[in-house]
Predict the structure.
Amino acid sequence: MMCKLILYSIAKGNKMLKIMHCDGHSICFASSIFTNFESLMYTTEKIKSLQQKSQEWLDKKHALTTGNIEQLRDILRFHEHRYYIENDPLISDYEYDSLYKLLEKFEKDHPNIITKDSPTQRVGSGLIKDFPKTKHLVPMLSLENSYDEADLIDWDRKARELSGLDNIEYSIEPKFDGASISLLYENDM
């Protein structure tokens, strides 16, 4: 039996809601990516400005400080909007991840400047309060990005430490973007 998933996006109040519809059952969750939907309406001038600022950050023309951290957060929010809402990214995943990691490291080194609406704080929040929590039979884990050999070696080390195995055989497949869902079929339904 196949489960047909349909994902709807709805602006409600100051949250972007996502409605996932699966064979007659709807699951609603609030996207934690955006906390102020109205502020994400970008003019042509604003888009050009953010594209230019993005390139400056990618070219490392700026050193991240407490004085310009909000600019980097705005740039990341803009690119999240282009990617997740408009499905029209203007930078590559690698470029986005580079900017994100810069912010993530800076916030780790300066935890007092982390804000609730920072792009680094979006995962795990924003669920509607009455959405029931479920313990999965098998944990749903996230993938990590890797762009160099050092990342892969470190990931392998962690996997061997956590598993207690000296040798692990890996299967590598292309990563496809999308939503995750864990389904348990009972009585073929």
The first helix runs from residue 44 to 58. The mean pLDDT is 75. The first strand starts at residue 5 and ends at 12.
